[in-house]
Amino acid sequence: MNFSVVIPVYNRPEEVDELLDSLTRQSGKNFEVIIAEDGSSEKCDGIVQKYVSQLPVVYFEKPNSGPGLTRNAGAKKAKYDYLIFFDSDCIIPEHYMEYVSFYLERNFVDAYGGPDNALPSFTTVQKAINYSMTSFFTTGGIRGGKKSMDKFHPRSFNLGVSKKAFEALGGYGKMRFGEDIDFSLRLLKKGFGTALIPEAYVYHKRRSTFRQFFKQVYNSGIARINLHLAHPGSLRLVHFLPSFFVTVMVLSLLLSFFYPVVVLAPALYSLLVLIDSTARNNSLRVGFYSIAAAWTQLFGYGAGFISAIWKRLILKKGEFNAFEKKFYE
């Protein structure tokens, strides 16, 4: 099989350099690369030029419209029948294309997703954020871990889809956040199959600071309510857990002034995160940072979720995005 790799980019030339370098090292060479510059002020055209002799790469610029519509623009330039989308902050292991080809040639599916991981070279904050996005104590371990062929929801940082399915859906919608879940939900509604390919993992840098991470997860909380309104029935009990966590922990801290023993609840949670992350990352330092990452994730997502419930479901306001003007930062 041949693949068209589509990468939307906004002000990330250094990341694109690392990503393209990792693609030159692929054991499988059956792909082209399409870089879609989404109205960046810091362009990566000079970086791309470094790799034109090593990769079949197409570069083009367009006005800023967000990642979903930028992926659509890139897909229009694809010459192969299977698309692979990566975020610009990913590094691709050498075996990736080979494993995907092997899987799809034997178990073809219209869309697949793969897990994310952290490299030893990542910063302590990036490793802690990676932990919080994949841990049982934060997401329940469900991100990238569900193998159901008909229910798995691929995420756009690492997603493959046949051009036939992509065109049947009309590509991504206009949502700036949650656009990948919207895409997956529409895939399933159209009857296309999805799968998790565990070997098709990527090294995902995510955000570099807790401030950036908070913005990201706050938007994710908002997006979940927007998705609920766009896809009735998609909201599950598990999506309420971060807001429930926020409520319980705030009450625990307030009650601790009168009943000091109550403070054991947040302390115990933090201890569990510390032990688990330290063991997984073999680093006590990452373990301590993971406490901050876990609380940032749950409070950020929970706060965005509660805010969206109030504004969209109670006040009946139109769709909105937090930090829209700073979406990529």
UniProtKB/TrEMBL annotation:
Residues 4-148, 158-269 form the Glycosyltransferase 2-like domain. The chain crosses the membrane at residues 244-268, 288-310. The keyword Transmembrane helix applies. The keyword Transmembrane applies. Keywords: Membrane, Transmembrane, Transmembrane helix. This is Glycosyltransferase 2-like domain-containing protein. It comes from bioreactor metagenome.
